[in-house]
Amino acid sequence: MLSNFLKLQQIQQAIVMVSEKLKSMNNLADIRDEYTKNSLERKDLNDSPFEQFHKWMNEAIESQCLHPNAMSLATADNEGMPDVRIVLLKDASVKGFTFFTNYQSQKGNELAENNKACLNFFWGELERQVRISGSIEKINKQLSDEYFQSRPRESQIGAIVSPQSQVIAENFLTNKYNELKNTYENQPIPRPEHWGGYILNPHKIEFWQGRTSRLHDRFVYTKQADAWKIDRLAP
């Protein structure tokens, strides 16, 4: 009898948990967070958006934000249909923001048609966001070669075997991976021509800091000739 009673209690507890989860899913509009960690004033900003970005990136790393270099990359095809996905930032300098990918992927094809794109970083732990708009071009082959050779061999093989964004059979990747792993055993793996780096040259960079009552701080740097204009935007 006691055993049956305990089982009944466990079932009831499980029903309550499922009910609470379903309730929360049906009330997404009621999910709210109050941003209280910081504020941003004009006097806090560096005159260079690149220096300001490095400052915030370093703070995101030091604060152990989850995947601090993860960024959304938004592109659009020549008909204006948008697409977005997460990629990893691998370098940031006054020249621009660099990432690596398959040139024959959907994003690669879209960038070949329309080289205008936008990056977005969100560091929830710091209640911060950075939006970067500009034009994208491929980096030179030597830099792509150097980065490719710095990657783990497993990642190198993965870049070769994946026909990114294409429909594949169930075991295609595993079979191809094992085949190339044996092919390149004990020898360097060359970078495939269809894989390499892109760099986004920005014309606008926005820094967003969450604040209470949705009175968020937003500052946008807009490129004008060889200088950057800084404006505060309404949240």
Helix content: 25-40%
- Annotation, overall tally of beta strands: 9
**Which class best fits the helix and strand makeup?**
alpha+beta
Mean pLDDT over the full residue set: 91
- List the secondary-structure elements in sequence, H or E: HHEEEEHEEHHHEEE
Intertermini distance: 61 Å
Residue ranges: pLDDT <50 for 5 or more in a row? none
Beta-strand fraction estimate: 25-35%
Tally of DSSP helical segments: 6
Describe the biggest sheet? 9 strands, antiparallel
CATH topology of the domain at 40-149 and 194-233: Pnp Oxidase, Chain A
CATH class of the domain at 40-149 and 194-233: Mainly Beta
Globular, elongated, flat, extended or rod-shaped: what is the shape?
A: globular
Radius of gyration over C-alpha positions, nearest whole angstrom: 23 Å
Q: For the record, what is the CATH homologous superfamily label of the domain at 40-149 and 194-233?
A: Electron Transport, Fmn-binding Protein, Chain A
Describe this structure in words.
- The protein is built from six helices and nine strands; from the N terminus they run ααββββαββαααβββ.
- The protein is of the alpha+beta class and 235 residues long.
- It has a domain of 150 residues: Roll (Pnp Oxidase, Chain A), CATH 2.30.110.10.
- Strands 1, 2, 3, 4, 5, 6, 7, 8 and 9 form a nine-stranded antiparallel beta sheet that branches.
- A hairpin with a 5-residue loop joins strand 1 and strand 2.
List keywords for this structure.
235 residues, Pnp Oxidase, Chain A, single chain, 6 helices, alpha+beta
